[in-house]
Amino acid sequence: MIDIILAILSTVGALSILFASIGILRMPDFYLRLSVTVKASTLGVGLLLICAAIMFPDVSVTTKAIAIIFFLIITAPIAAHMIGRAAYFTGTPLWKDTVIDQLAGMYNKETHELESNGEVKNSEGGSEPPNIAKSEEETE
Amino acid sequence: MITLETYFDFVILPILSISAMLVFIRLYKGPAIVDRVIALDLIITIGIGIITVYSIRADQQVMLDVAIILALIAFLGTIAFAYYIEKQKK
Fold first, then answer.
1. By C-alpha distance, which of A81, A82, A95, A76 is closest to A133?
2. DSSP-derived 3-state class of residue B41
3. What parts of the sequence cross the membrane (chain B) (predicted)?
4. Fewest C-beta atoms under 10 Å: which of A19, A41, A104, A110?
5. CA of B72: which chain A residue's CA is closest?
6. Model-level pTM?
7. Domain count, chain B
8. What is the C-alpha to C-alpha distance for residues A45 and A72, in angstroms, rounded to an integer?
9. How far is B86 from chain A (nearest CA, A)?
10. Does the CB of B28 have a partner CB in chain A at under 8 Å?
11. CA–CA separation, B82 vs B36, rounded Å?
12. How many CB atoms lie within 10 A of CB B56?
């Protein structure tokens, strides 16, 4: 019985890690890759660690596994938000079929502060156009 | 009769290895540096999974300490990359 539970948990974990890596390879631009990667890989590693916690009949292993899962769940969204913000500031283009970019023109380019009502203007006085790629090759 | 040990050896570990190889393709291709940063982060996360499965198979629970250290290093590395990419002069 416990073997079946372990097999199901490890299979779901390994498959979600596989889907994360297929997603990082196949998704068309950086932001979609980031959105696929973080959630699926955190779920997969969490399930594998739960598997290890059930497998070893020892309190210390369970504590370590819970510590790693807790740390991953806390830190993965923070790291993803930091790297996504840095990518947006350095001008990583969005996918060519992007419909809307609600952050376009909202960031102050010098101080990197977010304005709420879009009052940041460029030098000509107009609002900033969204940074959408012209072709598929630009983000691939 | 398939035991759990052979299932880990012949199904779970190959799936994780193929995942790591697919991410290495993105690490090599990646058009921007931020693509490479998230590919490196995902490789370390897959490494934590591989260490976990290997510690189950080898019955060595000491290896989970290495997984804790790797999780710390992945987080700090991504944060440092994001900090310096944001500060760089273009």
1. A95
2. helix
3. 6-25, 37-56, 62-85
4. A110
5. A71
6. 0.89
7. 1
8. 9
9. 5
10. no
11. 12
12. 25
Residue B38 CA to residue A30 CA, distance in Å, equals 9
Q: pLDDT tens-digit profile of A66-119?
A: 999 999 999 999 999 999 999 888 888 888 888 888 777 777 777 777 777 655
User: B-chain residues within 8 Å CB-CB of A82?
Assistant: 78-79, 82-83
- Written as one letter, the residue type at A129 is P
Has the ipTM of the complex gone over 0.90? yes
Measured between beta carbons, the chain A residues lying within 8 angstroms of B80 are: none
Q: Does A10 touch chain B (CB under 8 A)?
A: yes
Nearest to B64 among A18, A52, A85 (CB): A52
pLDDT tens digits for A36-56? Answer: 999 999 999 999 999 999 988
Instruction: Enumerate the residues of chain A whose CB falls inside 8 A of the CB of residue B63.
Output: none
pLDDT averages per 10-residue partition of chain B, 90 residues: 88 94 91 91 94 92 90 93 84
What angle do the packed helices B33-58 and A2-26 form, to 10 degrees? Answer: 160
**What is the signed CA dihedral for B79, B15, A55, B51, rounded to 10 degrees?**
-40
